[in-house]
Write a structure and sequence with these properties.
The protein is 21% helix and 27% strand. It is an alpha+beta fold.
Length: 480
């Protein structure tokens, strides 16, 4: 069976900022708790971890779907509430396919119509649409990342369509635009991308319109996909994260692709998830963690230096009150909520990872605290002033590094505690746990003890040994 080429479609490109998407604000096509069906005409060009087709979800948080339909690692998937149903049906790359799914409390069905005819996977465990309280606008072409290719049509139906009806649609025998109980229909074209049911006009971000008179557009060639990482069956836990991973024993000079480095904690064999360190982590790194973390405890050391990056240099004195009962000092005060809001803006990626781990069936997930600041950085000031990294950082902040001093230690400590509290809140919001800094590592004021200092922003391997014992303790308590 060969599907006719559509008259128009929109091209969505993944892994770029800002994300490509089409957004319909304040559009609620489905009632809470309703059965539903979705049909789309798509032409994917790549396999990505989360290629969104259509969704509404609360606070842009994975795992809190009102309803979602996407390609998860190339296969059709549905989400509603905090539940995910992943099929094993994969539409062909660089071919037009009609894909569909139906969901109700009684079961979920998936369908693909393409060059191989109509293929189905039916009677997966049931779903019903979740609550749309505080849900984001309805989005096309994005769910954590943008769809990897072209979308030419999306129809949403209230109710679980009969399998014979869906098969006829996927075979090209019935137009989905004529289905009963149609609550949303989007077909991009030169006259606009309006919802054909409500006549609402969307906001379009990034994605470009393609018409059938043009050559088919192609996403820029991506690097060849690496073979799926094989995780040894006896790997009892995974540790992943940014630069604070190295204090725990991950090899800082590691070169190569994404791989595992064996480690042990509490008598349990585990692994660090490794990738060549270039100051950050790739999308593939976190996607590999989600895939590899299924049924395993996962420990994440996420960033942790935000208080240094923004506030280490003191161009103007400031302070804030952590608690209402705190006594103000002489420095001008900034609102506590403003500081909290700043740190929350640094965590969307962590929130996405936590949501995907939860939806992907990871075992217990822990957000691991990053080390507190040092009580006295002044002996390091000359080294900081001579560092190209910190010179560039100061220039970005508009600070004259040669004349600056450090933000007072007590303010840096309060900033760190605020960051940790925000990270703890993120962990709890996604059903994860927060693993605090071991008490033995901090002095009476809460600063990192001198014997655990490494460089300005990091702790040393002795600190890492304490944290590995804490990870072992978490594994022991989980097994008890």
């Amino acid at each position: 069976m060969s599907l006719p080429q559509p008259a128009a479609a929109r091209l969505f490109v993944p892994a770029q900022e800002p994300h490509d998407m089409v957004r319909f604000g304040d559009l609620r096509p489905l009632a809470d708790g309703a059965p539903w069906s979705v049909i789309a005409l798509i032409r994917p060009q790549q396999v990505t971890w989360h290629g969104g087709i259509i969704c509404r979800r609360s606070g842009f948080q994975a795992g809190r779907h009102q309803f979602s339909f996407w390609l998860g690692d190339g296969a059709l998937a549905l989400g509603a509430g905090d539940k995910v149903r992943q099929s094993n049906l994969r539409p062909a790359l660089n071919e037009w396919s009609i894909v569909a799914a139906s969901a109700s409390p009684e079961g979920c069905d998936f369908y693909i119509g393409g060059s191989d005819g109509v293929v189905t996977q039916e009677s997966l465990p049931g779903l019903q649409s979740g609550s749309d309280n505080e849900a984001e606008p309805l989005r096309i072409g994005n769910l954590g990342d943008s769809f990897p290719g072209l979308i030419a049509l999306i129809c949403l139906v209230s109710g679980r369509l009969h399998p014979l009806t869906v098969r006829s649609v996927c075979a090209g025998n019935i137009s989905p635009l004529g289905l009963p109980n149609l609550v949303f229909a989007w077909q991009p074209g030169l006259r606009g991308d309006v919802d054909l049911v409500s006549r609402r006009v969307p906001e379009i971000r990034g994605t470009r319109l393609w018409t059938g008179q043009e050559p088919l557009p192609q996403i820029s060639a991506a690097a060849p996909a690496a073979a799926p990482l094989r995780v040894p069956a006896d790997t009892g836990f995974l540790i992943a994260g940014h630069s604070h991973l190295f204090a725990l024993g991950a090899l800082q000079g590691y070169k190569g692709g994404i791989d595992m480095q064996p480690v042990e904690a509490g008598g349990v064999r585990g692994a660090f998830l490794m990738e060549e360190w270039r100051g950050s982590r790739s999308h593939d790194y976190w996607s590999t963690l989600v895939r590899s973390g299924r049924d395993r405890p996962v420990f994440i050391l996420y960033n942790g230096n935000q208080h240094y990056g923004e506030f280490m240099f003191s161009s103007e004195a400031f302070d804030f009150l952590e608690h209402d009962a705190d006594e103000p000092g002489a420095a001008p005060l900034v609102p506590r909520k403003l500081v909290q809001a700043y740190f929350k803006r640094t965590l969307p990626e962590l929130n996405r990872i936590l949501g995907e781990l939860r939806g992907g069936g990871a075992g217990e997930v822990y957000v691991v605290a990053t080390p507190p600041p040092k009580g006295n950085l002044e002996p390091l000031l000359s080294m900081v002033r001579g560092s190209p990294y910190f010179q560039a950082l100061a220039a970005q902040r508009g600070v004259e590094i040669g004349a600056s001093s450090f933000t007072p230690p007590h303010v840096m400590l309060k900033l760190w505690r605020t960051l940790q509290n925000v990270m703890r809140e993120s962990a709890l919001a996604y059903g994860a746990r927060y693993l605090p800094v071991p008490a033995a590592a901090v002095d009476d004021e809460g600063f990192l003890k001198a014997e655990y200092h490494a460089d300005i922003t990091h702790a040393n391997r002795h600190y890492g040994a304490l944290m590995m014992r804490a990870i072992g303790g978490a594994l022991d308590s989980r097994a008890a």
